[in-house]
Amino acid sequence: MARNRPYTCGLDAAIDVVGGKWKATVLWMLEDQGPLRFGELRRQIPAVTEKMLIQQLRELEADGLVHREAYHQVPPKVEYSLTDYGRTLEVALRPLGEWGHANMARIEATHA
Amino acid sequence: MARNRPYTCGLDAAIDVVGGKWKATVLWMLEDQGPLRFGELRRQIPAVTEKMLIQQLRELEADGLVHREAYHQVPPKVEYSLTDYGRTLEVALRPLGEWGHANMARIEATHA
DNA sequence: CAGTATCCGTTCCGATACTG
DNA sequence: CAGTATCGGAACGGATACTG
């Protein structure tokens, strides 16, 4: 998802980072509930496939927004959490989330 | 672009609406400069093709965010502007735009 | 549990040519 | 000026099966 660089405005850049299909949801979950394991994330986003979830997590990690902590155990355990940088994004995202929440009915009605 | 409904959070819904490749840019232009003609938008977003620009405008119009005013003249003249609803979105988008602006160097460096 | 690997249809998007 | 039409490649994304 490196779409149209160089960016024409900050909004472009931000949406490029957070525009992936499940990224906003993941950021929201991690902010709301603290560190979560792969399986916990998966269960809480019922429609996501493993492939998509891991892909989005990897991209968030590469962007420095999410930290991946692997515990070397059997069975394996991996926890994902927001980085400080990720938290700054989450804060910037909050008004947009509230807008979406407030206008969800309208969005579902008009948006194809 | 109706991606994953029903939405899991307001952020999902909002990004579904504004996540199109050029939509953020268009909203930003219209807020920043007031009503603009098709050709003016096109010139100010050099990388966009006519096809994509009109497609994104149509979707923004269908979502009620942008108003299209056609003047029946020869040669034709069409002006696009934000609706009141569109302005509420633009306000909600502003912190995200500032975040993107502030972190653009980092985004360009880390984001594939 | 936390992933990989592969297949494959769908959607996105750019390029180009044309029109009222 | 402000679009429309068509083509084709690339990226996205779901389903399924498999692994350390």
TrEMBL record, chains A, B:
<protein>
    <submittedName>
        <fullName>Transcriptional regulator</fullName>
    </submittedName>
</protein>
<feature type="domain" description="HTH hxlR-type">
    <location>
        <begin position="9"/>
        <end position="108"/>
    </location>
</feature>
<dbReference type="GO" id="GO:0003677">
    <property type="term" value="F:DNA binding"/>
</dbReference>
<dbReference type="InterPro" id="IPR036390">
    <property type="entry name" value="WH_DNA-bd_sf"/>
</dbReference>
<keyword id="KW-0805">Transcription regulation</keyword>
<dbReference type="InterPro" id="IPR002577">
    <property type="entry name" value="HTH_HxlR"/>
</dbReference>
<keyword id="KW-0804">Transcription</keyword>
<dbReference type="Pfam" id="PF01638">
    <property type="entry name" value="HxlR"/>
</dbReference>
<dbReference type="InterPro" id="IPR036388">
    <property type="entry name" value="WH-like_DNA-bd_sf"/>
</dbReference>
<keyword id="KW-0238">DNA-binding</keyword>
